């Protein structure tokens, strides 16, 4: 457990009876000591998420996901072409060019409408 620090500043805001009841219920559900602790933690997490850039591992994971999605788009486009289905937009022309070098000559199914 973290060391408790003396808190000397106050932040006030008003909530409705219904909002207060929801906060109390959330504290009980999640085993939080008080509404103050719950709100403080929520606000600190919100601020941290907005100021912390993605980590290197998060960027790598996103890059891997983008690569997999691009590969799947290529495979779907090839499958649709092989099946003779050309009325379903699947891949944008840029991705089509990367897949088969098709570019402007990509099947109609590969072009966004």
Task: Break the fold down into its secondary structure elements and pairings.
Elements: H1 17-30, H2 35-51, H3 56-83, H4 93-100
Helix pairs in contact: 3-4
Silhouette = elongated
| Biggest sheet character | none
Helices and strands, in order, run as HHHH
Give the helix/strand class: mainly alpha
In short:
With 113 residues, the protein is an all-alpha fold. The protein has two domains: 17-51; 56-110, no CATH class. Helix content is 59%, strand content 0%.
Explain what the structure shows:
The chain is mainly α and 113 residues long. It has 2 domains: 35 residues; 55 residues, no CATH class. Helix content is 59%, strand content 0%. The longest helix has 28 residues. The model has no long low-confidence stretch (mean pLDDT 76).
Descriptive keywords:
113 residues; 4 helices; 2 domains; mainly alpha; 0% strand
